[in-house]
Amino acid sequence: MVKKLFFLLCMFIFIGLAYDVHAQTINERIAGKDRFEVAVNISKKGWTDGSDVVILANYNAFADALSASTLAYKYNAPILLTHGDRLTDSTREEIRRLMPREVIVIGGYATISSDVINQLKQIGVSTVRRIDGKDRYEVAYNIANELPASQTVIIAYGLAFADALTIAPYAAQNAYPILLSNKDNISNGVLRYISENNVNQIIIIGGEGSISKKIENELQENRSVTRISGADRYEVSVNIAKQLMGSNRKFFVASGLTFADALTGSILAAKENAPILLTRPNVLPSSIQSFIHQNSASQFVILGGNASVQQNIFDKMFGPLAGIKIVVDPGHGKRDTGAIGNGLLEKEVVLDIGNRLKTKLNRAGAIVIMTREDDSYPTLSERVEIAHKNGADAFVSIHLNSNEKSSPNGTETYWNSRYASEESKRLAEEIQKRLVKNLGTKDRGIKQGNFYVIKYTKIPSVLVEVAFISNPEDAKKMATSTYREKAAQAIFEGILQFYKSE
Ligand SMILES: [Zn+2]
Predict the structure, then answer these.
(1) Domains observed in the chain
(2) What does the pLDDT look like over 141-154, one tens digit per residue?
């Protein structure tokens, strides 16, 4: 009884840790101490009652396994990983738990040796079958032939894993084979399959750097060919989700740099009708951020441990400013010093505040675009152009005020009524009141102003005059990192409140 209670308690703690309810988002991570264990934990989650079939792939050789997800889906089988010459303890235990009738081994003896087959037999697997081929293209062709004949096929680049794995959930659900090709010449596997099955519809995954235009043109004769591409593997994964997988609320997220988690997770994603998005381990690509923002995605399953997808990626997804693009514009730069006073150069102080603001916005999930990050000088029209070109959501210009006399002091924030006037005014209000409070400066209020950068940006935009560089008390504050940090914090909180009450 005590043992049972302890078990229940452990389960409770496990679930408690795995689910992080953040507003309306559910955030789950399937981790493990290595990729073998990640695969095992995926299997445990998706196949609680065992499985008739298990697919086994080499943990280190993605080439053969790229098309295996479609097969796994057909047999409702988890994909587990092995060394070339031996099963890990975790994989062996999981196969024991699943009690499969059959294990399908992907790849030749060089990829998975007969020692592994013997170990499978030793734990009671009665049938071990191998799907092999003289190269990855033929393996993919052979896997395709295990699926029902299909007049639609997917063609992905065979020399990198990303595209083939991100299309896997979609391919699997529709029983479309994933065939592989190199960049410039259609592989034999593709040619054979499309002629043997009268293929009339082809989906090419990846840009022309992966599968060339020449191949696309050749395939186009008598067939409809669609290409889903993107600037990089991350954007390809976004475009697959957008263009093929409809309106999902649930997404799987895997590292775009290692294949194992995406491979073993792809089948669970397919079962749950969820696309796989790829990310860098420590930076969420902006294409993914914008997508998440636009979709108000509500549920994420992260594949792999912290080394594969770092915790800050979660913060990015669920941060209060997730996906919002903000332009931070530290005024002046280079030969344009801005105002000078009390030993300070305006261009230096506002750059420091701007960079601090950037850090805070980033942590909250915003996509920050700096008009300058060093002592350079973009022109005023270039600064406006940066905002428009990037499709930014808001623009914040940072300046220090100055007067011939030393007595004028305090903080003021400008907005302009030409574009997004109501929002600009509200943003100015939110920032102004926090700056005054944080800095203890005189409140000069918000004002309408005709400064170029706020007049011509078509999005909510403000120009902040943090304090007077020409006033000794104000300048004394602006000389310290403590007050620059306070200023950045105030602007940050103002932006945060602006979006909260939107
Ligand atoms: Zn200025």
Answers:
(1) 32-318 (no CATH), 325-500 (3.40.630.40)
(2) 999 999 999 999 99
